[in-house]
Amino acid sequence: MNSNNGTNSGPRRTKIGGQALMEGIMMRGLDCYSVAVRRPDGGIELEVKPDKHLARWYSRVPFVRGIFNFVSTLVLGYTCLMRSAEISGALDEEEPPKAPAPADEGSAPAGTGSGLETPSSPAAAPNGEGESAGGERPAPLHTAVPAAEEKEEKGLGAGFSVAVSVLAVFLALALFMVLPTAIVGGLGKLVELGRWRTPLEGLVKLCIFLGYMALVSRMKEIRRMFEYHGAEHKTIACYEHGEALTVANVRRHRRFHPRCGTSFLLIVILVSILVSSFVSWQNLWLRMALKVLLLPLVMGISYEIIKYAGGHDNLLTKVLSAPGLWLQRLTVREPDDSMIEVAVAAMEAVIPQNGEDDRW
Which residues cross the membrane (predicted)? Predict the structure, then answer.
């Protein structure tokens, strides 16, 4: 990994993003993605696969890229989530995998820490800062970069992932778009709403979304995923500040990040409220159908807002990022050191050889 300490006064911004999994983390780089998962025996399983999403034509078309990126992320996220469940044994065991205790505060244990070097991670931390306390590089983790297996998975398994992802989209549509319209439509039969109909639909939509987030955050398994979510954010922030990816360095950073999927979902809700204000039809079924049809436009606008906010630092972007950062208090929790180790392993596997290639 090349050092990021250049002439820029502030932290650089990277195109690398991630997702919390069951006892693990997925990191998506420029031309590959990695899945790092804590195994039941305490070790870390790392898999790296090619991913050319940034090279596709739609990635350069404003508003259109947001729609395709959402679908692509949804499918990949589900695939990685199921893979993490297999590796971690999360579907079989009551207790989460246990990580070996770190040998030193500032360095990760051999085979699990920040000094990971893999075929898809050509260089390690700058200036040897990722070395362990004893001055030796940790042994490489088990890494899979399956080329032949990648083709085999593009059959029934890939089709199943797409089908489940599409089903998830429809369920989300029903919960966050159709249901609020139906609730307010029923209320409109009892009292005259007039111009308050659209604001009320937006308020109900926002309440359902926040209530859903608050409810799932109380589940034990989801809480652990939210802790891995925090490890992902902290690790990316550490990399963006040009620091060596050690547990001690990562731990110092904030768990909140402006380019978060949670922030994107909230922006989608808020933009949909704004766009819905232009839907004047009062017929319940017509209103629901129009809102579903307008969803691609909503996603496209929301993605451009997040993209702009993530690449700039001014008063406007701070205002745009504030609601999402606040919501992350529900979906992002402080991780423990073993989770940070997993995040570092996933991150190092997708860092490009040229440190400038992944600039936002």
Answer: 156-179, 199-216, 260-279
